[in-house]
Each structure stands twice: as structure tokens, then as C-alpha cells.
Write a structure and sequence with these properties.
By secondary structure, the chain is of the alpha/beta class. The chain has two domains: about 160 residues, Aspartate Aminotransferase, domain 1; about 280 residues, Aspartate Aminotransferase, domain 2 (3-Layer(aba) Sandwich), CATH 3.40.640.10. About 35% of the residues lie in helices and about 15% in strands. The strands form three sheets. It has a seven-stranded mixed β-sheet with strand order 4-10-9-8-7-5-6, with helices on both faces. It has a four-stranded mixed β-sheet with strand order 1-2-3-13. The chain has a four-stranded antiparallel β-sheet with strand order 11-12-15-14, with helices on one face. A hairpin with a 2-residue loop joins strand 11 and strand 12. Helix 5 runs parallel beside helix 10, helix 6 packs across helix 9 and helix 12 crosses helix 13. The two termini are about 30 Å apart. The structure holds 4'-deoxy-4'-aminopyridoxal-5'-phosphate. 4'-deoxy-4'-aminopyridoxal-5'-phosphate binds next to helix 6. InterPro entries: Aminotrans_3, Aminotrans_3_PPA_site, PyrdxlP-dep_Trfase, PyrdxlP-dep_Trfase_major, PyrdxlP-dep_Trfase_small. Belongs to the class-III pyridoxal-phosphate-dependent aminotransferase family. Pfam families: Aminotran_3. GO terms for molecular function: (R)-3-amino-2-methylpropionate-pyruvate transaminase activity; alanine-glyoxylate transaminase activity; beta-alanine:pyruvate transaminase activity; pyridoxal phosphate binding.
């Protein structure tokens, strides 16, 4: 207990605030989909450090590649090229369709989006950027402007996008800033509890058009879209939304950026990249999280034309593309192929979605079950008539109960009302069944206490 108290004080207060853990789990060790705390208690990890541990905690092959490279060479900066960098860039590019072949390596998703925004502005000569309600694109001063999720905003009027959860207005700060409009969200308020009853695509496309007409006529640099919103709560767009949005953006001279930080590397099951599920071709793709299976890495991949505009300046990143990161990234890509990670995501994810849908039909408080592959959101409501989000206290109760039964999941959504399930993509059907039983029990317990 004393150790716990000391360590709790040492916690990053923001992290504790966001996660609302009553009693943090001090993790000590991991193996594939399993984590152990300092007391030796085992947990089924269904959150993977926020969709980051892609192939499994301390995956033997990735750990071996890291060890081997760590003994040979860690760091040179891009001033001295090295074989792992060359090999990795080639390998990563081979996972992307033409013309997306120019690779830039960073250390995080925020850095990748920051860089993508810079590229878009240099290439188009324009400044304004459009992002969507509920989006998360990073936590730095620039990328916070792209992030619309109010929970992550600081209360200062600094041009960093909108500060209102519902983002009804275009906000333009002193530096232009980002324009955050209603995204085609499937939150409870808008549509859930009745699959397929979403606000029509035209509504959202209409909003986007209005943004262009009223706020950014012909001056757009970029549009950022997560193929499925992650932090926003596994939010999916209506069919054709991204396709039509990309077209509108391009007609007005902007470039289209797919933020694949959560959706990349097979997470959505049906495709390696989330954008492929929308039948669109982005001009820039940003990625991080699953790219390094937990090792700090990120990347921006773009077209030769955009790369050429970017090459007019000097870009430098001390750690980006260091030998250790490249060796790890390379072995993650190999492991995804060898382990059939994407196929597991599709098979187990689809199964889990079906099982969770049974809980939606069983309980009044389970408003919506959505997602693709192993990127799943379960939206909780007070009841299916009012569609009001379940209170943070109730969410915490269920969350803690699930944790006490040995499963770790995440929370998210515009109102913090969505449980997020994004495990290492090596979980089994048995793990899925175990979680559904635990979730069922925890909701049952909650209903009993009400
Ligand atoms: N984009 C998306 C879609 C994300 O989910 C996140 C992180 N949650 C980021 C960007 C930022 O990545 P990082 O935390 O590595 O900076």
C-alpha cells in the first residue's frame, strides 16, 4: 500500500485525470496479450497501450531484433545513413500503394501529423486545415489545433482549433488555426441504438461545403481524417463520406491526409490501412503506435510531388529513423505477415463484435457496438430512449469491475461514454469469450446496484 501511495504520487497527474483509475495497475511485465502487475496478478490486455502493442507485448521476434540491433548500433542521426534505415523505408513503402512512396520517420504520432501539416502547407501555399469533431491528432501546440476532442484542449484562446465539444462554429485563431466541423459521427446523440439510423452523409458533406463557402474559400492546405476515429470512440463514417470529402478538398486545392496512427498495420482487419476500407487514396499518410509495437516511432508517407515541395527546406529529426527503431519497425512488419496479425484482427474482431452485439441487445445501457477488426467501441447510455451518455461515475464503476476481474480496456468518446477495445492483435476467440463474460457480469453488477 505504501509503495502504491508513493507511486501514485509520482504519476503524471494528467494521465490520472484522463484515465480516472481509482487504483492504478502498476504493470511490471508483459507477454503477448498478457500483462502482470507488481504483485504478480495477470491481466488480459485489451487496450494495448492505446492500440499500440500491435503484435504482442515483448513479442519474441521483435525483442530479439531489438536486442541484436542494440548490441550493434543505436544512433547516428540521418547525417550518417545506415542499412536498417534503407531497409526499413523500402519495406514500409512496399506496404503502401503507388504513389505513396516517400517515407519520413518520426518518433510519435503528434510529430508525424505536425510534419504532415507542414508538408501540406508548403505544397499548397495555403494555411487552413479542416479536422472533424471528435478527432484526435496529437497533443503538441500545433497538433492540438487539429485535435477537436475538448477533453484535451487547454482553456486559452490561442488559435488551436475549437474549444467546444460540439464544435458548431469554425474557429479562427490569430494564426488561422484549424476548422473543426461536425464529423459524420455515429455517437448516441446522433444515431446509435439503432444501427443504420445515422444522420445522412449529405448532412455532413453539406457542412463541409458550408465550411468552404463561409470560411476557407479556396485557401485550404489540408483535410485530416482518421479512417475510424480512435479517441473519439471507434467512430465510423457513413459510406462514401471520406470519398466525397476528399473530392471537395481536392477541388479547392487542398491535400488529403489519412491519420493512420490507430487504424494502420492491420488494426481494422479487412485492410492493412484504414483508408483502403474507404476506397480513397490520400496524398499523405501519417502513422505511429502499432508501427513499433510500443517502441516510440512514427512516420509520414507521401507522394514524390509533395516530397519535392518539402525538399525546398532543411528538415532534421535527431532520433527519427534511428537504427534501433528501424530494426524494430522492420521486425514488426515481418511479424505482422508471419503471425497473420491482420487476419487475426479480422477474424477475432468480427467474432467479438458479434458477441458484443448480443450484450447490446440484452442491456438497456449498451447503446451501440461498432468498429472494425480489433478497433471496437461500446457506447454506453442511460437508456436507449433518451440516448444520454452514461455518467462518468457509472462508466468508472463498470470499468473498475472489469479491471478487478482481470481485463484492461480503455475509455473514450466525446462524452467519455465509450469503452474502447483495441488489444494486441494476437488475442484468441477464447480471450474474446472471456472478455464478453466479464463485461456481461460487470454490466449485470451495475444494473443490480442501480
Ligand atoms: N493521431 C491519432 C489518431 C491518435 O490516436 C494519436 C494518439 N492517441 C495521435 C495522432 C498522437 O500520437 P502520439 O501520442 O504518438 O503523439
Amino acid at each position: 500500500e505504501q509503495m502504491l501511495a508513493i507511486r501514485t504520487r509520482a504519476c503524471n497527474p494528467m494521465t490520472t485525470k484522463v484515465t480516472h483509475y481509482k487504483k492504478p495497475v502498476f504493470v511490471h511485465q508483459g507477454h503477448m496479450q498478457w500483462l502482470w502487475d507488481v504483485d504478480g496478478r495477470r491481466y488480459l490486455d485489451l487496450f494495448a497501450g492505446v492500440a499500440t502493442v500491435s503484435v504482442g507485448h515483448c513479442h519474441p521476434k521483435v525483442a530479439a531484433a531489438a536486442e541484436q540491433q542494440a548490441k550493434r548500433l543505436w544512433h547516428t542521426t540521418s547525417i550518417y545513413p545506415h542499412a536498417p534505415l534503407h531497409e526499413y523505408c523500402e519495406k514500409l513503402a512496399s506496404h503502401l500503394p503507388e504513389p505513396l512512396q516517400a517515407v519520413y520517420l518520426t518518433n510519435s504520432g503528434s510529430e508525424a501529423n505536425d510534419l504532415a501539416m507542414l508538408m501540406a502547407r508548403l505544397h499548397t501555399g495555403n494555411f487552413d486545415v479542416i479536422t472533424l469533431r471528435g478527432s484526435y491528432h496529437g497533443g503538441g501546440p500545433q497538433t492540438l489545433g487539429l485535435t477537436s476532442n475538448a477533453a484535451y484542449k487547454y482553456p486559452i484562446a490561442n488559435g488551436f482549433g475549437c474549444t467546444n465539444t460540439m464544435c458548431p462554429d469554425v474557429f479562427r485563431g490569430p494564426w488561422g488555426g484549424s476548422h473543426c466541423r461536425d464529423s459524420p459521427v455515429q455517437t448516441t446523440r446522433d444515431c446509435s441504438c439503432a444501427p443504420g439510423h445515422c444522420v445522412a452523409n449529405e448532412h455532413y458533406i453539406g457542412q463541409l461545403k458550408e465550411t468552404f463557402d463561409t470560411s476557407v474559400p479556396r485557401r485550404i492546405a489540408a483535410f485530416f481524417g482518421e479512417p475510424i476515429q480512435g479517441v473519439g470512440g471507434a467512430v465510423q463514417y457513413p459510406n462514401n463520406y471520406l470519398k466525397e470529402a476528399f473530392q471537395l478538398v481536392r477541388e479547392r486545392g487542398g491535400v488529403c491526409i489519412a491519420d493512420e496512427v490507430q487504424t494502420g498495420f492491420g488494426r481494422t482487419g479487412s485492410h492493412f490501412w484504414g483508408f483502403q476500407g474507404h476506397d480513397v487514396m490520400p496524398d499523405i499518410v501519417t502513422m505511429a503506435k502499432g508501427i513499433g509495437n510500443g517502441f516510440p516511432m512514427g512516420a509520414v508517407v507521401t507522394t514524390p510531388e509533395i516530397a519535392a515541395s518539402f525538399a525546398t527546406g532543411v528538415h532534421f529529426n535527431t532520433f527519427g529513423g534511428n537504427p534501433l527503431a528501424c530494426a524494430i519497425g522492420s521486425s514488426v512488419l515481418d511479424s505482422i505477415r508471419e503471425d497473420g496479425t491482420q487476419q487475426i484482427s479480422l477474424r477475432v474482431g468480427t467474432y467479438l463484435l458479434t458477441r458484443l452485439a448480443q450484450l447490446r441487445d440484452k442491456y438497456e445501457v449498451v447503446g451501440d457496438v461498432r468498429g472494425k477488426g480489433l478497433m471496437i467501441g461500446v457506447e454506453m447510455v442511460k437508456d436507449k430512449v433518451s440516448k444520454e451518455p452514461l455518467s462518468p461515475e457509472a462508466m468508472n464503476e463498470i470499468f473498475e469491475d472489469i479491471k478487478d476481474m482481470g481485463v484492461l480496456i480503455g475509455k473514450g468518446g466525446v462524452y467519455g461514454q465509450t469503452f474502447r477495445i483495441k488489444p494486441p492483435m494476437c488475442i484468441t476467440k477464447e480471450d474474446a469469450d472471456f472478455f464478453v463474460a466479464v463485461f456481461d457480469r460487470s454490466i449485470h453488477n451495475y444494473m443490480d446496484r442501480r
